[in-house]
Design goal:
Elements (H helix, E strand, L loop, with lengths): L6 H65 L1 H19 L1 H14 L4 E10 L4 E12 H13 L3 E2 L12 E12 L4
Antiparallel strand pairs: 1-2, 2-4, 3-4
């Protein structure tokens, strides 16, 4: 097929073609930009509303904190909380003393206790964890047997991982206790 149009006519057609092509592309880009903006507007307004609400909430919280600080209420509440914790500990002193006396009576010269942790689940029951160092494996096993023979202790067992060495054993023994009323 041979194109018989003159060169000037070809140039006009080509120019007209590209002008239409670019104008349609520009129109499509404009429509896409406007549609994207229209779809983003609701999300923008929602996010802006949430940001404003968060700002107002923060301002109200800061105001409340300033009021509490001004009245000293926060300090008083924390002091009362500490006092209650201390009173609760004093309430359980007789039980703690009983546990410590039983542990001290069971320890021999070959077993040294370096730490004792007592946590109460009620006024007369809870958990004990003792840690220390034993000179020999047999002295640690004997110590564990003496603890399990105590009537107030339950679930006493020396972990196998503590019995790896023959001498100079580090140990940690957790167990439960239950006493009658203090």
């Amino acid at each position: 097929m041979v194109n018989l149009l003159p060169q000037s006519e070809k140039m006009k057609l080509r120019t007209f073609y590209y002008a239409r092509l670019w104008s349609i592309l520009a129109l499509l880009l404009t429509v896409a930009t406007l549609a994207g903006s229209a779809f983003l507007m609701p999300a923008y307004f929602l996010a802006r509303g949430e940001a404003d609400a968060a700002t107002r909430s923060l301002a109200a919280s800061e105001e409340n904190a300033k009021l509490y600080a001004a009245t000293g209420a926060m300090k008083d509440v924390s002091l009362l909380k500490e006092r209650l914790a201390i009173l609760k500990d004093y309430e359980s002193d007789a039980v703690t003393e009983l546990i410590l006396s039983r542990l001290a009576g069971d320890a021999s010269g070959d077993v040294g206790i370096s730490s004792i942790s007592v946590s109460f689940s009620s006024a007369t029951a809870g958990k004990v964890s003792i840690a220390g160092k034993a000179k020999t494996r047999s002295s640690l096993i004997d110590f564990g047997k003496k603890l399990s023979d105590e009537r107030i202790f339950s679930g006493v067992s020396v972990p196998v991982s503590d019995l790896v060495n023959e001498t100079n054993l580090d140990f940690s023994i957790p167990f439960a206790f239950t006493t009658s009323a203090p």
